[in-house]
Structure formats: C-alpha cells, structure tokens
Amino acid sequence: MTRSVEGMSALVTGGGSGIGAAVVARLAAAGARVTVSGRRPDRVRAVADAAGPAVLAVAGDVTDARDRQRMVDAAVEHGDGLELLVHGAANMYRGALEELDEERLVEVFTSNTIAPMLLTGLALPHLRERRGAVVFFGSVHTQRAFPGASPYAATKGALETLTGVLAAELGPQGVRVGCVRPGGVLTEINQRAGLFDDVEAAERMRGLGAAHALGRSGTPDEVAEAVEYLARAEWATGAVLTIDGGLSLGVTNA
Asked: Residue 26 in contact with residue 228, Cβ under 8 Å?
C-alpha cells in the first residue's frame, strides 16, 4: 500500500544543491509542501524559487541546536504538520588514517551522524502524529572499501545501522524509517572533497562511470526517486535501498 505525496508536509535538509535539491524538486512536483534547509541562504532560496510556491526556504545549519529547532518549527507551520523528514545535509572528509585531524573528524561525525539523530528526535512528535517517515542517506562506501574514505564511510555506516534500530524503535509508534544508499553521483559535496575538481576531472568521471555495472554514474534525480518511494511505501521500514548502478557489485566496464 502506498500513500500519495500530494499534500504531504516534508522537511529536506541539505537541499541547496545535489541530491537534496533534486529531492525538493521531485516532492514539490508531486504536490508536497516542502521546507528546504541549507547553510547558504542564496542557494536554498534559489532551490525553493525553482520548485514553486509550495516550497519554503529556511537557512540554517543542522549542527546548530537552535537552527534544528527553527527548521522543524518552520516545516510544521508551513505544512500544517510534518510527515516526512529527509536528511540530505552531509559533510565530506577524506584522509589517510595517520593524518586525520581530530577537529575535522568530530565535525564530520557531528554533521553526518549526530545532527540527524538529534533532528529526528525533535521532529518525532510531529511525525508520530501523522504516522510519517524518516529517510537517511547511506553510501556505497559502506559496501566497497575506498582507501582514504574512513571518516565519511564510518558516518554513513552509522546511519545505515541507525536505520534498522530506529525502524524497530519507532515502528510501533507508526513512524517508518528508511535509507537510500547511492553510488557515484556527481554532486557538489564530491567536488568540495577534491574528487572531481582537478585537471584530471574528465578521466576521473570516465573511471567512475566504468566502475558501475551499468557503465555510468548516476544523477541526483535518480536517487531522489528512491526517496519518493520510501515516502510513499507504507509497508517499507528498516530498508536500505541500494541505488548505485551496480557499483557495489565490484564489476567494471573499463
């Protein structure tokens, strides 16, 4: 059984670019009332303007307790409740183990793991009232080992485990919890991490595509489609959906 996205109230964090922005656009196109948050006011406003009048932009940082509360309050007011919480906000940090900086390590865990847990807790009373859903983002890094990716992989592994734990904990309260595990998608977070922004960018992109069984990297909207499914699917909870073009299979089209 599935519910309609039309009229659904949703909060999407990290919606100023990449997959988060694609989620906002897809949900809004399906008739949801969406509150989109992000650290850069100009970017979240641009996403909201492009998606239409049913989308409200709220600038804020998920690692700030006051901002988290403000996001939830704005979403509840804008949508007359809250049925869907999508955790798109994330930070990327890579490096060899012996070279890791403690401050940056704490920062990435705070952004990627601790903040989503706390934000979910704030939203829970409203999600419980509407028998709503929470969607996290995992990563193909939890399925394939990429040297130098230990900080990011560890934060995403934690979210994938959290998906099952919270599904069991919140299921009796009527709240569903799911996770989408994307493969290689060219987004701004990857560019900021230095994966695609050097003179070998074109070669890197070709190599990334060839590592997928389907022979190409994915698009933000293809990942957003899976988020919409989890928002609609009333008998799906605890699921980690792998949407990775076969990257986790370990084959190559090179």
From this structure: yes
First to last CA, the chain: 41
Total domains, the chain: 1
Q: Which long-range contacts (CB under 8 A, 24 or more apart) does 147-153 make?
A: 147/96, 148/94, 148/95, 148/96, 149/94, 150/95, 150/97, 150/100, 151/93, 151/94, 151/95, 151/100, 151/104, 151/105, 151/108, 151/109, 152/92, 152/93, 152/94, 152/108, 152/112
**pLDDT interval class at 206 (50, 70, 90):** low
Q: Locate 43 and state its tokens.
A: 């970017």
- Reduce the DSSP state of residue 129 to 3 states and report it: helix
CATH number at residue 177: 3.40.50.720
State the catalytic residues: 152
pLDDT, tens digit, for every residue of 2-59?
789 999 999 999 999 999 999 999 999 999 999 999 999 999 999 999 999 999 999 9
On whether residue 60 sits in a domain, the answer given is yes
Q: Cα separation of 159 and 117, whole Å?
A: 9
Give per-residue pLDDT as tens, 91-124.
Answer: 988 888 899 999 999 999 999 999 999 999 999 9
Range of the domain at 112: 9-242
